[in-house]
């Protein structure tokens, strides 16, 4: 294994002296953010910053007063920093991501590396590349572990150990993870028991004891186990449906020793937060929104106390669960101090004195502040994209309308800065998924890029999108090719009727399921759209059962059967490859050669169908990219191609 290289001073040289792109350049939007994440040490003397250096993520540890680096940690040619955590005031652990030679995007094997703030005591503390294999009952040194390590709790009361869940590498979906205490200096582990269910997620109580574990059985059934004290046997307390649907019990955090906050739907399609007594089984509703599921849950510095949640029907807002928590008062004060911004306590020191505050909006990508509760001071430490000129950012306007069948649909309209919001050329940009993801009120580099070129951009949270309740999401099941597309089409007509868009200058662009929609909506309404750009999309629904990573697992096959079904006639009717004769819009296909979710065979099938119909199209494949473009240079080419295609067909 190559040792970690330390490059002192590189952080400042990159962040201060490098030429920054202007808003007229493609790089302004296509390049990665300068600062991806910031976390403060337990004593507040240092902050750790995740930042890309020469195309790979590195970890810079800075003095919190001077913001000068004490260490910049970079790995070898095929490694970069993934997730990271402070485990005590002197030590950080980082997850290692690895680049495969044939792919641009790195992958994680669940390995962890430890390093001190001064760059010393560098050690791979968990993973299959560390130590040597040993047998016997007396293990005197750290050993290689052929499994994926997931942090359960950082155990702030223990300065040397964390609680970790280890899932052995296996092609089977039935492997049972084990709990271990992991020494963050030596890598030695002590077993703390085994999960009774595969694909496990553990939840600890206020003392750091694992008391809940949830997972998925071989038949797709969600199972939840509970124990009332340390070392007690796990007791099954909840079983979901074998299909994996209608899960109605997700523990969030303990309220006290025997009461727990859970997310559940109960008799409503909207998820709410309940306080549940584990002795009696009694549930008491704490909060449920009328329209949307909670989008985020927020926990105390040690991760063990729930104090707030967010709901986002359009703009985001907070609901405070525990009004007595110090984080509640702090967050309320920060919201008042930073008007017009969405404010989050993205990280805190274990004692709560220091906090990293992330403030963002539709025009601001993100600003990181360091808050000191003792001094009541707020200090800016980094901007996610320091080159962004906020005054030149496009604004994002929430919209809502009634679809043709009366269902209320929400979305967002991004309007170019400096142009009258009237008769604009429009890009309709459906999101991926379609089930689970949704669009948000935020700064989005793609929509900002398109708006900078003079386009309005429409994003639609069509039926089937996540976050609007189970009924709304299930309304999109087996309707990928009709009702979901009707929502996209109706949204387009809505913004035309409102006067925002020119009905003669409208194109479609989307990625993944959005790429599918870019073709399918243009097939259903061939006279509405002037062009269609599909990015890493699926175009043959039958092929989803045989190609890609979804059918590799039983859970994936159950998912496909649930959301698209197996009616051959319907699958073909909903597949663009079988309906090119109905398409008028010229097409641009952009794909990644290493895409495992929507494999290149999907793009090739569409290309073959277009050629057979003699339909005009353009073609671009990045051989080493996957399901989305990771490399900065490739994203620049992508944005240039997108702009050129739309400029040609919308005649700006």
Automatic annotation (TrEMBL):
One GO MF term: serine-type endopeptidase activity
InterPro entries in alphabetical order: AB_hydrolase_fold, Peptidase_S9_cat, Peptidase_S9A
Signal peptide: 1-18
Source species, domain of life: Bacteria
Key words, A-Z: Aminopeptidase, Hydrolase, Protease, Signal
One GO term (biological process): proteolysis
Keyword ATP-binding applies: no
Residues annotated as domain Peptidase S9 prolyl oligopeptidase catalytic: 441-651
PANTHER family referenced in this protein's UniProt entry, alphabetically: DIPEPTIDYL PEPTIDASE FAMILY MEMBER 6, SERINE PEPTIDASE S9 FAMILY MEMBER
UniProt-recorded name of the protein: Dipeptidyl aminopeptidase/acylaminoacyl peptidase
UniProt organism field: Ferrimonas marina
């Amino acid at each position: 294994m190559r040792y970690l290289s330390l490059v002192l001073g590189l952080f400042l040289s990159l962040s201060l002296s490098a030429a920054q792109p202007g808003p007229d350049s493609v790089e302004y939007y296509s390049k990665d953010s300068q600062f991806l994440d910031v976390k403060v040490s337990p004593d507040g003397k240092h902050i750790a910053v995740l930042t890309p250096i020469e195309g790979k993520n590195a970890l810079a540890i800075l003095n919190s007063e001077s913001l000068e680096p004490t260490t910049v940690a970079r790995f070898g040619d095929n490694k970069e920093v993934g997730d990271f955590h402070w485990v005590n005031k002197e030590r950080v652990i980082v997850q290692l991501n690895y680049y495969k030679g044939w792919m641009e995007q790195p992958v994680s094997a669940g390995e962890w590396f430890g390093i001190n703030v001064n760059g010393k005591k560098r050690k791979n503390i968990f993973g299959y590349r560390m130590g040597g294999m040993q047998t016997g009952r007396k293990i005197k040194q750290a050993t290689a572990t052929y499994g994926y390590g997931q942090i359960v709790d950082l155990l702030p009361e223990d300065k040397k150990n964390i609680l970790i869940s280890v899932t052995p590498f296996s092609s089977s979906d039935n492997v049972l993870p084990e709990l271990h205490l992991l020494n963050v200096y030596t890598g030695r582990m002590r077993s703390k028991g085994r999960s009774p269910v595969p694909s496990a997620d553990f939840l600890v109580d206020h003392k750091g004891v694992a008391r809940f574990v949830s997972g998925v059985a071989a038949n797709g059934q969600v199972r939840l186990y509970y124990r009332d004290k340390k070392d007690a046997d796990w007791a099954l307390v909840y079983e979901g449906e074998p299909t994996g649907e209608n899960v109605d019990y997700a523990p969030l955090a303990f309220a006290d020793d025997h009461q727990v906050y859970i997310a559940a739907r109960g008799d409503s399609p909207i998820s709410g937060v309940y306080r549940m007594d584990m002795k009696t089984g009694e549930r008491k509703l704490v909060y449920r929104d009328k329209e949307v599921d909670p989008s985020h849950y927020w926990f105390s510095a040690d991760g063990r106390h729930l104090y707030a949640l967010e709901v986002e029907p359009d703009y985001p807002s907070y609901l405070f669960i525990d009004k007595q928590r110090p984080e509640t008062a702090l967050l309320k004060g920060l919201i008042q101090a930073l008007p017009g911004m969405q404010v989050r306590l993205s990280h805190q020191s274990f004692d709560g004195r220091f906090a990293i505050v992330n403030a963002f909006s539709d025009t601001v990508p993100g600003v990181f502040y360091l808050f000191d509760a003792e001094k009541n001071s707020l200090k800016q430490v980094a901007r996610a994209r320091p080159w962004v000129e906020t005054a030149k950012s496009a604004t994002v306007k929430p919209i809502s309308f009634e679809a043709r069948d009366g269902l209320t649909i929400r979305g967002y309209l991004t309007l170019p800065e400096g142009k009258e919001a009237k008769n604009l050329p429009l890009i309709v940009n459906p999101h991926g998924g379609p089930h689970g993801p949704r669009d948000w009120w935020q700064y989005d580099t793609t929509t900002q890029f398109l708006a900078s070129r003079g386009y309005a951009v429409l994003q639609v949270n069509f039926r089937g999108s996540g976050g609007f309740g189970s009924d709304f999401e299930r309304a999109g099941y087996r309707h990928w090719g009709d009702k979901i597309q009707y929502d996209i089409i109706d949204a387009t007509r809505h913004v035309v009727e409102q006067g925002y868009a020119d009905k003669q200058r409208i194109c479609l662009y989307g990625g993944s399921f959005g790429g599918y929609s870019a073709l399918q909506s243009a097939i259903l309404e061939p006279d509405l759209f002037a062009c269609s750009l599909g990015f890493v999309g699926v175009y043959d629904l039958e092929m989803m059962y045989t190609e890609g990573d979804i059918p590799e697992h039983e859970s994936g096959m159950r998912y496909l059967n649930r959301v698209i079904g197996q009616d051959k006639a319907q699958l073909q009717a909903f597949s663009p490859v079988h309906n090119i004769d109905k398409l008028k819009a010229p097409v641009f296909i952009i794909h990644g050669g290493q895409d495992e979710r929507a494999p290149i065979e999907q793009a090739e099938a569409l290309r073959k169908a277009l050629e057979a119909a003699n339909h005009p199209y353009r073609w671009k494949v990045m051989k080493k990219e996957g399901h989305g473009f990771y490399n900065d240079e490739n994203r620049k080419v992508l944005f240039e191609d997108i702009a050129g295609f739309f400029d040609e067909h919308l005649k700006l």
